[in-house]
TrEMBL record:
Major enzyme class: oxidoreductase
PANTHER family per UniProt: PYRUVATE FORMATE-LYASE 2-ACTIVATING ENZYME, PYRUVATE FORMATE-LYASE-ACTIVATING ENZYME
4Fe-4S ferredoxin-type domain location: 48-77, 82-106
EC number: 1.97.1.4
Alphabetical list of Gene3D superfamilies matching this protein: 3.30.70.20, Aldolase class I
Signal peptide (residue range): none
Organism: Christensenella hongkongensis
Oxidoreductase keyword on record: yes
Protein name: Pyruvate formate-lyase activating enzyme
């Protein structure tokens, strides 16, 4: 199992917002949702992707010369990658003297990931932290995710997972004995609205949420408060009532909109549909109060 490989796009040490205590969060590639506000767009595709940081590009043209497919072109706005022609050979990344162009992820074994996770073991013990799997959607690479969680549990680490719950029940069942805390999303209560903004319906998500609750799992349900998308009074109230009425060890957390992921869309050459969205802290606090008034156990 330790030789099982997965595609990892980031490992964040000393994470303090991805579960209890100080944690190491491992971000796995691949997500079945396509939320228009996604803060980790590099995690949506299950494949490697070319990542461009134009702020580091010195326009030397070395990457253009190295590309056998002619996928890179110099323009007035800098070097542009035609991802349709790119074959991910990596020659451009090797030729770049400033790392302005590189892959957005790397293939790693369970043991390679654990070597990094173990570095902060003493901080986990002091703070009650541990390992968190995130993404993307970790259940998309379920064999690797399960192997990593199993290895972490053998070493006595607390485990958590951030998941949309959009997965087959038979896959989710395998995570139950290996995960100490599930951090789930219910982004939109209405199925059609959920389809509009995320690309998928939400019945599977709701059913899997009820399943975890029935198994006695510790669950924190999160609502990302996205301007113009998820931040209506009706949406927040209905999700809060759903969580309240689902019996179990469950809490609700509203996640304030953060526009800091916008730069990733530029590096990936993708359109950011919420480029003009603004953070509204006053409305966020108002919605927190609204959710609390339903009687749900609110955290954060």
């Amino acid at each position: 199992m330790e030789g099982t490989k997965g595609l990892v796009f980031e490992i964040k040490r000393f994470a303090v917002h991805d579960g209890e205590g100080i944690r190491t969060t491992v971000f796995l590639k691949g997500c079945p949702l396509s939320c228009i506000w996604c803060h980790n767009p590099e995690g949506i595709s299950q494949n490697k992707y070319i990542w461009q940081n134009k702020g580091e590009c010195i326009k030397c043209g070395a990457c253009i010369d190295a590309c056998p497919q002619g996928a890179l072109v110099m323009t007035a706005n800098g070097i542009i990658c035609d991802h349709g022609r790119c074959r991910l050979c990596g020659k451009c990344a090797k030729a770049c003297p400033t790392t302005a162009i590189k892959f957005d992820s790397q293939e790693m074994t369970v043991e390679q990931v654990l070597e990094i996770v173990r570095k902060d073991r003493e901080f986990y013990g002091i703070s009650g932290g541990g390992l968190t799997l995130s993404g993307g959607e970790p259940t998309q690479q379920y064999e690797f995710a399960l192997a990593l969680l199993e290895a972490a549990k053998k070493e006595g680490l607390h485990t958590a997972i951030e998941t949309s719950l959009f997965c087959k029940r038979e896959v989710l069942e395998k995570f139950v004995p290996l995960v100490d805390h599930f951090y789930t999303d219910i982004k939109l209560f209405d199925g059609q609205e959920h389809l509009k903004y995320t690309g998928v319906q939400n019945e599977v998500i709701k059913d899997n949420f009820r399943y975890l609750a029935g198994k006695g799992c510790t669950i924190t349900c999160r609502i990302p408060v996205i301007p113009g998308c998820t931040d209506s009074d009706d949406n927040i109230s209905k999700i809060a009532e759903f969580v309240r009425d689902t019996k179990g060890n469950i809490s609700l957390e509203l996640m304030e909109y953060n526009p800091l992921g916008a730069g990733k869309y530029i590096r990936l050459g993708k359109e950011n549909e919420l480029a003009d969205a603004k953070k509204d802290h006053d409305n966020y606090k108002r919605l927190q109060k609204l959710a609390k008034e339903t009687g749900v156990r609110l955290v954060g």
